[in-house]
């Protein structure tokens, strides 16, 4: 078991508590702003190096927060087992390396509003894996919502020929979904330490990928790219992911991820209002279908879970 008591932020284990709406609203606003910030910050900047710095800055912020809040100077750090480090490594690769790279790359291929809808479809993707892995059996309405939501995703992608941007946005959603499932498996690891480790390990993998594909890091970033980077790293990454991991330990995965239905709404609104995008009829219908499906998942009734305290290796 790793980690010192830090209220319900750092204590491991899965509780029976419900989702805290205010936290999910903060997460939705933060994540909904990610694509507009990427659109703003990636002006003439290497996509892979930009998300590399995003991950590293977020990791350093959480490391500093943990050091200031709940780590005793001079106290020995509990050793984690190899299995726990392996899970953290997979979490970092899926939740950071794959998700961040795919998210940023997709933002250059499709409208930011549509990218937000697709990249935040994890509420649809997580239902069946949560049932298989954690016994969180979905109700009939939730299964119907998954089918309905997939139809909405196809309605968005097919009229435009699918394309690289749509596939990458969905890949980002797959990465976040896998991250949510892995985070539950790591529920006994201090959440701040889990956060900074996944970002730094994932950022290191992104740096290798960026160096191979784009060469040395760009040093001539504009002022607005730096501003976008730090706002994205702190407000759109470190803070919401910390709250996200905490909520995944309080309630069922489906209950938590269903709140991400607010993220596409925020992203679409920002895409239209801030970026000035115009949506085609098929995109509007597809987005409405996805949001409706997510709403069905949210209000169909909480699934009956078999709460289990999964002992970590930390």
UniProtKB/TrEMBL annotation:
One Pfam family named in its UniProt record: EamA
Keywords in alphabetical order: Membrane, Transmembrane, Transmembrane helix
CC per GO annotation: membrane
Keyword Transmembrane among record annotations: yes
Signal peptide bounds: none
Main location: membrane
Annotated TM spans: 21-38, 50-70, 82-104, 110-134, 141-159, 165-183, 195-213, 225-246, 253-275, 281-301
Alphabetized SUPFAM superfamilies for the sequence: Multidrug resistance efflux transporter EmrE
Subcellular location: Membrane
Residue ranges of domain EamA in the record: 24-157, 164-297
Membrane topology field: Multi-pass membrane protein
Family affiliation: Belongs to the EamA transporter family.
Full protein name: EamA domain-containing protein
Organism: Mycolicibacterium tusciae
């Amino acid at each position: 078991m790793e980690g010192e008591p830090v209220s319900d932020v750092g204590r491991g284990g899965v509780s029976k508590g419900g989702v805290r709406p205010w936290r999910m609203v903060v997460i939705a606003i933060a994540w909904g702003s990610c694509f507009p910030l990427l659109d703003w910050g990636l002006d003439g900047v290497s996509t892979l190096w930009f998300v590399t710095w995003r991950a590293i800055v977020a990791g350093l912020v959480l490391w500093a927060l943990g050091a200031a809040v709940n780590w005793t100077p001079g106290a020995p750090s509990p050793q984690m087992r190899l299995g726990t480090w392996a899970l953290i490594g997979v979490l970092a690769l899926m939740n950071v390396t794959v998700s961040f790279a795919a998210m940023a790359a997709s933002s250059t291929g499709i409208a930011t509003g549509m990218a937000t809808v697709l990249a935040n479809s994890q509420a649809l993707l997580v239902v069946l894996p949560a049932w298989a892995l954690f016994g969180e059996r979905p109700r009939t309405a939730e299964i119907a919502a998954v089918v309905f939501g997939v139809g909405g995703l196809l309605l968005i992608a097919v009229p435009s020929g699918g394309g690289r941007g749509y596939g990458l946005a969905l890949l980002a959603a797959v990465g976040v979904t896998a991250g949510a499932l892995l985070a539950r498996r790591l529920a006994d690891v201090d959440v701040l330490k889990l956060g900074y480790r996944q970002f730094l390990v994932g950022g290191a993998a992104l740096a290798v990928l960026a160096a191979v594909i784009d060469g040395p890091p760009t040093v001539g970033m504009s002022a607005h790219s730096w501003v976008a980077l730090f706002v994205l790293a702190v407000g759109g990454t470190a803070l919401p992911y910390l709250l996200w991991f905490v909520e995944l330990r309080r309630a069922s995965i489906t209950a938590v991820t269903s709140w991400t239905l607010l993220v596409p709404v925020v992203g679409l609104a920002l895409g239209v209002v801030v970026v000035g995008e115009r949506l085609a009829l098929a995109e509007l219908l597809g987005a409405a279908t996805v949001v409706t499906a997510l709403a069905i998942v949210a209000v169909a009734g909480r699934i009956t879970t078999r709460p289990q305290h999964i002992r970590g290796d930390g």
